[in-house]
């Protein structure tokens, strides 16, 4: 693989590097970055214009270095202008808000106890009066009537900053929402006035009506409830009614990706039309006309499914791929793929932190790189075996590229993914082929009834197969975790192995061995770090008491009346990532003003109930978890109440930041 053949791949890599570097630049102001960018552009232009054959050697490394520096600076600059802290009118700069004026941006989304929506703030009222402001607020209301996009609301109250996680390694909802540039939420109930009733634009209203019409047809003609849930998820991107048991079964089988409308589904639609027309064999006019129609249908499908971020990414990818195919019969897919990523990141640079964005592009890169190599390992004579092998190689290539990310974020590896994809991918293709035809003909009852029954039966058979994987022994490996350096080393090993198989040179063997050695040293270092741990962690939970005592690689717990959800979402993530899940038990005694913990080795630790301060306290340091970091805890600063966050007591004045 020669990178000089794929310029947009290089451009995107350095642009992304600039976006990733930006948070570590002390959030440099856009003006300073723009000046630096202009200086480097002028310098680059001057060097290119003054280029002569005699100066080739001296400029051989300088010119590319300046060019790539420009791309890094461009990534930093785009990130800086999207940084809300550089916008003086953003909500983050206001305090003492008593009411605010906002426009509804989305359709209502029913929740168990309220209705969620998103509003864009236009003005806020403080002690200084009404002031212009901007920013998004996630609201939760209980209005009897639906809030339509475009509606203008006068909301009484103060939007609250979404709190960060209170326990280390727990899911940080604030960070997740910040990726969408949403930093505030507000439970408004009925404390608002509807100043103007919004109306959807005609095209949006038409799309919503079409989606509701199609959803009604699915519920009418796909009779089995479980099949209807899968049909709505696969065909319309509606997963809100999906039963937890069904989702768990698909996740265990490694087939959850077919329920999340994404690049797979757009790719199936894209490939479906290629079964009947081969654009690479057609003349340019017919090729352009056909591919334009395919792109139009892809974007229509994206609109019907609600323009979810994953579908938008996939639609953008296939749009650029189609444009490349319009110009060439056999274009390289790497350049349009990289260009689509760069366009999306210029629009929203912080997409690079979104898990879906990472998984989408990593999976597609894995398929492009590894699938031809895997497929070449076996060439069965049977056409059906070859078809199954091709499907298997696609699933294996995607899994090979994405498993480090999946383990990093979700801590689970589906053991039978190889077999489940043999069922899930062809099943998804059949269901979508039948389903799209069903949706197109759903206006007429006779074909809709016939096709609906076929869709129903296809999904029922697929569900039976998927649920059977859940019953197999060791259906999934749980409680796994890769840190960022480990992920990078594993990807480096995969890429070096790929280069070795392609080029078959001794140099590539050395690269593979070098990465393996680095990976081994990293694991040794990680083990050594864990062996030095010695602390007590008091978790912040809604009910009861949760304490972990960590000594080296040994973990002991004290759990008193802790809710299962608290254990799963607040405690278990830290154990998976930092200490391990094999734990012993601590004996807890409640005596007057103290909690007595009997530690291993016969030692007893006394903690004050009010402050959790150890007695005696001269051999300890205390920190509390705040905004993703451990901060020093001074009980005197919390005389009346404890900080609502996890507390960490470190022994021997040695604090290991984890």
TrEMBL record:
Q: Where is each DUF4131 domain found?
A: 32-185
- Where would you find the membrane-spanning parts of this chain? 7-25, 31-52, 59-81, 249-276, 288-304, 333-355, 361-380, 387-410, 416-441, 480-502, 508-525
Q: State where the protein is found.
A: Cell membrane
Q: Where is the ComEC/Rec2-related protein domain?
A: 234-500
Per the record's keyword annotation, is Phosphoprotein included, yes or no? Answer: no
Short name of any one Pfam family annotated for the protein: DUF4131
Q: How does it sit in the membrane?
A: Multi-pass membrane protein
Put simply, this protein is called ComEC/Rec2 family competence protein
């Amino acid at each position: 693989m020669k990178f000089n053949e794929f310029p947009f791949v290089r451009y995107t890599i350095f642009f992304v590097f600039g976006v990733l570097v930006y948070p570590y630049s002390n959030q440099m102001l856009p003006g300073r970055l723009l000046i630096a960018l202009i200086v480097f552009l002028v310098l680059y232009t001057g060097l290119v214009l003054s280029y002569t054959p005699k100066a080739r050697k001296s400029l051989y490394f300088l010119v590319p270095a300046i060019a790539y520096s420009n791309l890094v600076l461009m990534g930093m600059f785009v990130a800086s202008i999207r940084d809300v802290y550089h916008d003086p009118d953003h909500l983050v700069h206001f305090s003492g808000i008593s009411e605010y004026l906002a426009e509804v941006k989305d359709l209502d989304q029913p929740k168990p106890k309220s209705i969620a929506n998103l509003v864009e703030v236009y003005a806020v009222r403080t002690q200084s009066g009404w002031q212009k402001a901007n920013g998004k607020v996630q609201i939760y209301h209980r209005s009897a009537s639906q809030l339509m996009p475009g509606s203008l609301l006068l909301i009484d109250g103060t939007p609250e900053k979404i709190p960060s996680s209170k326990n280390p390694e727990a899911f940080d909802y604030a960070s997740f929402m910040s990726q969408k540039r949403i930093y505030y939420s507000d439970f408004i109930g009925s404390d608002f006035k509807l100043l103007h009733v919004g109306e959807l634009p005609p095209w949006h209203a038409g799309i919503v009506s079409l989606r509701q019409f199609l959803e009604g047809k699915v519920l009418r003609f796909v009779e089995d409830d479980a099949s209807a849930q899968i049909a709505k998820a696969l065909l319309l991107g509606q997963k809100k009614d999906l039963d937890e048991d069904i989702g768990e079964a698909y996740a265990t089988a490694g087939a959850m990706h077919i329920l999340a409308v994404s690049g797979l589904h757009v790719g199936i639609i894209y490939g479906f039309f290629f079964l009947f027309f081969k654009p690479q064999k057609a003349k340019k006019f017919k090729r352009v006309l056909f591919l334009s129609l395919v792109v139009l249908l892809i974007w229509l499908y994206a609109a019907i499914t609600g323009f979810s971020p994953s579908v938008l990414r996939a639609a953008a990818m296939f749009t650029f791929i189609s444009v490349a195919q319009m110009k060439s019969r056999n274009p390289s897919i790497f350049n349009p793929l990289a260009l689509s990523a760069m366009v999306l990141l210029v629009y929203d640079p912080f997409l690079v932190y979104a898990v879906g964005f990472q998984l989408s592009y990593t999976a597609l890169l894995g398929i492009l790189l590894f699938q031809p190599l895997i497929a070449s390992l076996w060439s069965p004579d049977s056409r059906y075996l070859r078809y199954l092998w091709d499907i298997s190689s696609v699933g294996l290539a995607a899994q090979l590229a994405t498993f480090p990310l999946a383990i990093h974020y979700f801590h689970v590896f589906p053991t039978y993914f190889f077999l489940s994809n043999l069922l899930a991918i062809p099943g998804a293709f059949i269901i979508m082929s039948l389903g799209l035809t069903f949706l197109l003909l759903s206006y007429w009852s006779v074909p809709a009834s016939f096709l609906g029954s076929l869709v129903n039966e296809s999904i029922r058979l697929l569900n039976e197969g998927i649920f059977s994987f859940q019953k197999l022994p060791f259906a999934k490996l749980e409680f796994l975790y890769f840190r960022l350096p480990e992920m990078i080393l594993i990807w480096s090993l995969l890429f070096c192995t790929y280069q070795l198989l392609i080029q078959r040179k001794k140099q590539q063997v050395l690269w593979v061995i070098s990465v393996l050695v680095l990976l081994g040293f990293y694991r040794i270092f990680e083990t050594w770090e864990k062996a030095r741990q010695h602390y007590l962690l008091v978790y912040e939970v809604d009910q009861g008491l949760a304490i972990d005592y960590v000594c080296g690689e040994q973990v002991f717990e004290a759990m008193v009346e802790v809710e299962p959800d608290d254990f799963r979402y607040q405690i278990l993530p830290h154990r998976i990532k930092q200490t391990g899940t094999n734990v012993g038990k601590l004996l807890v005694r409640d005596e007057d003003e103290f909690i007595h913990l009997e530690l291993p080795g016969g030692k007893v630790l006394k903690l004050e109930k009010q402050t959790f301060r150890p007695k005696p306290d001269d051999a300890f340091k205390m920190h509390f978890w705040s905004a993703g970091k451990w901060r020093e805890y001074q009980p005197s600063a919390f005389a009346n109440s404890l900080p609502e966050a996890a507390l960490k007591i470190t022994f021997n004045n040695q604090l290991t930041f984890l």
